[in-house]
Amino acid sequence: MNIVNFNRKKTAFISYPEFSLASVDNKTYEFHGAANDIIKKLNSIGFLDINNTSREVAETYDISLNESIKETSKLINELKKLNIIENNENLQKFENIQINQKNIENNTDVSHWNYAKLNLIPIRCKLNLTWRCNQKCSFCYNGDRENPVNSHLLCTKIQELSTEEIDDYLGQMKDAGTFFISLIGGEPLLRKDLDQILNITDKYQFAIDIITNGTLLTPQKVAMLKEHNIQQVFIPFFGSTSEMHNKFVKTENAFEKAVKGLKLLKEAGIRVGARSFITRNNFFQWEEVREMIYNMGADYLPSVQVHKSCDGKVDELSLRVTNEQLMELKNKGISMYDGHECLVGLARVDILPDASLAPCPLMVTPYGNLREKKFKDIWLNSPQVKRLRKLVQLRMDASDYGLEKASRCAHDAIWDDGGIIKLSSEAARLIKAFRETPRSNSSGC
């Protein structure tokens, strides 16, 4: 018999009524029709007999056995290339794969985001494991850690989510259709039970990424991370030198530790996204930062977004790059506008360290608390989420809100311009500056 096995070690998976999603190596693929039937069976029982499967496909879709064997074998070969399945053959990975659209749609298609939005499926969740952090970044959206005022950082004695609660709540999220999970903070590596938490995310087959400052990565912690199905780890950089980076994070030796942590991840074969935050004050180093990141083998992810912190203390106007600086970035082919929609209330949600549900890390007014009600009850029935959902939908339907503008942060619109329905003035500035530059596809912020 020709048997193939499902690669659970590297593949995140979820099935919806119309299609399935699998994510491997930080790429997400949709499966429809016969391909959907096959991948669901693979995930369910862990292996597949190609000959028997071909006969089942022929009967279900009323095609000849020869045609079914041909199409099934073609699909299996593509799944091998993606490392979603494995057998005794030597498999290869390919970064750019042309796939028959009848079988699989690769991650350049974003119909699963539209599906989630239209059906109110919280497909993306950011799990805030803690508000504690070992750095004091100058424009952290969580607020000023040195002098916390009007901020949830004052709540230093909150009862953080226990491992058992995380298991319970993530199980509820999986049942609701969540697939993408970001582990964030604060600094998530401060959680002593991170290994146990990742065992839970592995169990539910989530597509996981971790956002960390990188300073707490050790050979032991990286070895632990490698044992789990993590799609990518993100580390921020605020300059190409220790002096500049450490000035932003207000922590000694942070730059050296972050660089060391990134290199440890790369040596372990874990994909790393290095976020380069470009501001008015560190702009002169942006090219050196890009070269440094490329030389370390990480994905270069530039950003010029500076958000108002939840305590309102960040002077974002003094940090945001000037129009002249934006034009320089544009002229050198750097795009800062990725075109994704703000899907708060529709397809994304945050779990905060105190078990509250909130729209996002920036908009922390809670919908409700998971210690008091089940997730679906809050998500579908909370007056707060219903009101936000209505405003976000109005925002998308606004006359000045065309496809290109159907994006940007609702939090910024509130803080910058006093309302959620219209596009924020900062988003409009970025769109105007980068309108003609290439954009990445929707990622459903």
Automatic annotation (TrEMBL):
Keyword annotations from UniProtKB, A to Z: Iron, Iron-sulfur, Metal-binding, S-adenosyl-L-methionine
CDD domains linked: Radical_SAM
Molecular function terms from GO: catalytic activity; iron-sulfur cluster binding; metal ion binding
Radical SAM core domain ranges (all copies): 119-341
SUPFAM superfamilies, alphabetized: Radical SAM enzymes (SSF102114)
One Pfam family, short name: Radical_SAM
InterPro entries named in the record: 4Fe4S-binding_SPASM_dom, Aldolase_TIM, Radical_SAM_PqqE_MftC-like, rSAM, rSAM_sf
Metal-binding as UniProt keyword: yes
Highest taxon of the lineage: Bacteria
Cofactor or coenzyme needed: [4Fe-4S] cluster
Protein name according to UniProt: Radical SAM core domain-containing protein
